[in-house]
Amino acid sequence: MISIVVVSHSRALAAAAVELALQMAPEDRAPAVEVAAGLEHQESVLGTDAEAVAQAMTRAAERSEGAGVLVLVDLGSALLSAEMALELVDPAVASQVRISPAPLVEGLVAAVATAAAGGDLETAAAEARSGLQPKLAQLAPTLLPPAPARDDGTAGAGVPAQTDTTEVRSVELAVGGEHGLHARPAARVVACVARVAPETTVRLTNLTAERGPVDALSLSAVATLDAQRGHVLLAEASGPLAQEVLVELVDLAAQDFGDLPAPAQPLAATERMDPASSAEPGVAGSGLEAAIGEVVLAGTELDVSDALAGSAEEEMASWRSAVDQALARLAELGERARRHLGQGQAEVFDAHALLLQDPVLHEQVERRVGEGISAASAWEATIEDAAGRFTALADSYQRERSMDVRSVGERVLRLLLGKEEPEHLRGGILVVDELDPALAISLDASVVTGVITRRGGATGHGVLIATSRGVPVLTGAGAAVNVPEGTLVAFDARSGDLFVDPDDDQLQAVEDLIDRRRAERSRALAQALDPVRTQDGQALAVRANVASVAEARVAARAGAQGCGLVRTEAVFGQWRTAPTVQQQVEVYTAIAEVVAPHPVAIRTWDVGGDKPLLFVPSEQEANPFLGARGVRAFAADPQILLDQLEAVCRVASARPVQVLFPMVTTKDDVTTARELLAQAAERAGLPTVPAQLQVGIMIEVPAAAIQADVLAAGLDFVSIGTNDLSQYTLASERGNTRLARWSDHLEPSVLRLIRHVCRTAPEGVPVGVCGTMASEPNLACLLAGLGVTELSASASAVPLVKERLRGASIASCRELADRAAAAVDAEEVRGLVSARPAVGTAR
Ligand code: PEP
Ligand code: MG
Predict the structure, then answer these.
(1) Residue 515 pLDDT > 70, yes or no?
(2) What is the reported pTM?
(3) Hey, which of 698, 744, 767 would you mutate to test ligand 1's pocket, going by the most ligand atoms within 8 Å of its Cβ?
């Protein structure tokens, strides 16, 4: 029988709700209900604790013996804690857990009754979600806004009471989420509607973009409504469950169709968030290695022209059988992804499966087959149409999803043409146009030594999946890899260097590179948890930049000595309303606990420039990077910043915490920040700012670097943000790829500013670097030589950065730094710091 977890801010509330719900079940048939409510050791304080929720989930999973766990939450941070708990539990437990958007009491009562009647997880979840129905049916006519009449006489906004099953009901849904209604949220809409089909039908129209209406059961149609953040959709339903499904859609929309809240971002996504980290075009990301092997071509040789058309019945039968086989395979791949990579990546395969069941695509295939062509040709044409609709979308992320459509298309096409799945590829370097997720998860990483893509950047799901499986991926190689199968190639994914038909020297150079990296990586991992001392005894700290509790866990395992930068604007990046003080306290506490006893530097909202926050009002600016960014954004109204500082003060009373102010430019900025901190401490009920709370500023504006002696006086630390310091020093916007050769953090002007800060910072004020420079192992010694004593790197880079510093003497680092600062340009500096052999570019 399924088990249930109740997550509530209040123990009393949870206990009463459980007592009430259990009355719905005979004693011998009642499901196990675990409670995670209130805060440990703080009886009187209302709150939720992700660790406690994780423990309750684990107990519930054990008691359910595989039947699954339904989690019901009360409000706000209870949901956040439940989401965080999913990251904390064993993946095997997480895969059995479903968090319900249902109202707590009604949902719990419905879930207990359904479980007691033998209902499975799916049914209990659906019943819980429908828990509000009785109330809505009774009260909706008075509680919900009257539905404005539409031209066609059907109902307008609101969810009217159910009276007539033929009537069309409608509701407007606001689209949130970073990429709007992209494939995965769209898949959730389709899944929601599929549960009531075919008796109840739903159509969606994008009112803002004037697209639609489309059948909400068709993923290809829903995903191509071009519904972006801020758009409004009209959902119209008719049939016996019209009202229920609209209520579910309203719930789903309130959570950005399943994308909200998203406090935890995958590591790679967070690093990608930083445009300066992708300075080298075509490089998939840090942690990638090099590869040598013979080219294996995939995905380009599916020729449908030879497929002879049988009768329409025969063609449809073979097409249906191919679809069934493909669905079975996708279920296996989804399960594999769920086990190894987590729910987020697994959902890609759920979306693929939904695409395969898309009734619109089915109709198109049937129509084409009816015209006398083979199932393979009909399917190919249908997929091309659907992919074309994605390619025409405005949002680049949504556009990239055409790859998902093509991936599904190719899977079925292979089956129709009797071609092998690409996973049976023999060992070698796989060359593909684009790397789709299905291929990335099905690759046998022990024989496929690397992947080269002709098109596409590092943002594709496939690249992320392959890299997290340890497969080196070189992206965007273009025509350089239009070579016959069996051609020898070698590449270095970190530098982007590619050799086609390498000569002996080039081959040897890449072989040596791989050997060195392998040896260095194993040394680094063996000593990852040890502190760092250079050969001549200088102690240095290597910490991590994080944007979620999950990342903090990776960082702690990688040996990070605390977090040198918590990008809070990324932690809460997708929230539409500002997190409360309590919600922030929970997240910051969780991060602090994960890296304890090391400190955590919580940076205050770094909003503005390329980082808008939905809950911080902003005005249109001609030059946002030179506008109201960081601390400046709160000059007129500091309330949201004060809330954050109050949370920081509260966490700091019990844990080692630092507060870090971004975009500080003048002494007045420092004074104002400190005044706000004092006010926040007062609001937190503390007599003063906690003595142990260390206060620091980011140095990312040249003015602050030049005047570091004045600005840092009286502070506990400073941290140089080399990403912004480079863009402001070099007057080159950091995300603008056309300016890449100007916005180079290795320019001697930037290095001299870093050295100036280190030399002039007041005695006892340590200088750290938390920009991308600190994540590049090759630059660790240079930064130490310039005088930096704390490096805050991406979690995955921590072991190697430590290893590089251990292997050097501070004297040699200083010598290197002197030469670099005296260099003519970034190219000369690159020559000094590059540990790589001089390998050339693709040819
Ligand atoms: C920086 O500017 O280097 C920095 C660390 O801040 P962000 O990249 O978040 O702007
Ligand atoms: Mg910055």
Answers:
(1) yes
(2) 0.56
(3) 698
